[in-house]
Model the fold of this input.
Amino acid sequence: MMKKLFIIVQWLVVLLLAGFAAWVSLKPSPQPAYHPDEWHSWNGFMAISYAGIGRHTSERYPSPAKLAEHMRALSENGYQPIRPEDAAAFLAGRAPLPERAVLVLFEGGRKDSLIRATPILQKTGFIGTMAVPTRYLKQWGSAYLKTPDLRTASKLPQWAFASMGHDAIVEIPVGGAGSKGRFLAQRKWAKGTVETADAFAKRITEDYYLSIDLLSDATRQPVITYLYPYGDPGTGPGSDPEAAQINLDAVSARFSIAFTRADDPFNGPSSDPFSLSRLRVSGNWTGSQLVKELKQFEPRSDAVAGFSDASRWFLRKGSGLKDNALILSDESLAWLRGSEGWTDIECTARIKTEPGAMVAVYIRYAAPSSYLRVTLDESVLRVQERLLNRMLGLASVPVPPASAGHELRVRVRGNRAWIWLDGNAAAGPLPLSPDTDRGRVGFGAHGGRAYVASFSVSPSPSYHVFADSYAEIPERRRGEVGAILPTWFGTDRPPAVTASQRGDALTAAAAGVECIPVIANPSDLPPEESERLATGIAEALAHPALKSLVTQLALSGISDHLSRALRARGFRLLHRLDGDQVRDVCRREGLREAPYDRLLIDAGPDTAPGLLDELLHVCPARRVLVRRDAVKDVPLGVRVVVRAEDFKESN
Done:
């Protein structure tokens, strides 16, 4: 009886898919609410995923009615759909996204997801990305999509596709006692021995390549997205020491983005494209619950004091809040929601650890391979910076015993960090890499329990200031300055830097303030004069006291010849643009050759907001600066420029 019922169900699904294919071929599909020409946001995007769509709502699967409720709630709250290629272009700094962008994923390559979600996506204007394990494409069974199904779905504008590997979803033997492990994370046991490192790397790499080739062939479109089964790219418990690097090398060779975690929907401009996160949606959430969850992860710039607002914290692996304090168990983490784009901050906390435990304060955490970390245990305070596969020790300070714990204060400004312990300066100014420029704030514990109380953190204002010298800025306002722009060079005199200017740049650097010398240049300097001027400037800045401090120069307009000459000598550039020059930049492709150049809109309040919108359509926010007097609501990531006189006038 059960066998007959199973066969009937199989045929019913086959008939449904046949009907679906006929419907697709005969009925024109409505277009999604998808308008890239209108996008200009560089904040980031949300990614949410569904394990499937059930006939009835359950904790794991929403019903079609529940999915429709979710999509309507997203639309009513301003969320707009994107495709994987939009996320990849955004992360590469090539194109913006809509406000409240959301990537909707359907995991597992299930037929019920395709059949039940398609009409809902069509009605609500959203786009789904189907993540497919390709080993099921040619297997018998009704639950999973086959090659013809994908070919049919690929004709619909509502669908894009991602890979979940080929055999990556299956468990493999990893020991002689019948123990099992994950395909991408552990070495395979066969014929009484474990596979070699070369065989391990070959097996994993071939699985990535096979999956993308099969999926691209089935859909007849490029596939750029990988979604890790079990959320494990070779970094989980029991993983082979070489697994993470093998997986990274393989996925980055054929894909543009990859999703690892499933506990956080937000991905910002500094997110690692191969370590993205999505939020797995509970099937029984209401639409308002889904929206509330997403809003908790949106970028924010307000200060936080204490732990009373639990919605501000993303607690993982056993961390918890009690009596306005954070309690961290061994290997637990707590992240401040909305802080992913923070750069300069002030942070204080009272920290107490159990014997043998260490607490870590993370700042500018962009990925597991990029962050600043301050650790504190019973005897030592350490400051460390993670740069890819290197952990750099910046400071190590003995800690006196204290039964009541210690008060830790951290300031990060520009490329410098300062640390205070119990009110006394402990380290700093410590130099930071330009790559460690932004990221979220959080805590972790290792080796035991730790307690954090009396916590406060706030992002600090960081203005670029046109000033003849750092000394010109009022002392009480210097904490708001990220860079000074003094006019050092011009075409009317030989390039030179005085001893006074060198000393001023050193004083600014000690405070974490960058010095960006301004060149008073015409915008059309001929090639020969550009080369002479660039050579003279490079020689003037080659002084040992300046060479590592001054890496960026400001000039008027695009100045193609002078710009190329200065870039050839290793300088990054800040272009001061009027309205016509901004529009020229928006029309041309030239600045794509210089991804580190930045653009200052030097226009008044009547035209600057419109120019800013135009520029953000082609240029990441982190590369744009505006005058404080010209733009009232400055988007996240855009820097603000003032004059030294503005500080004096507001005294």
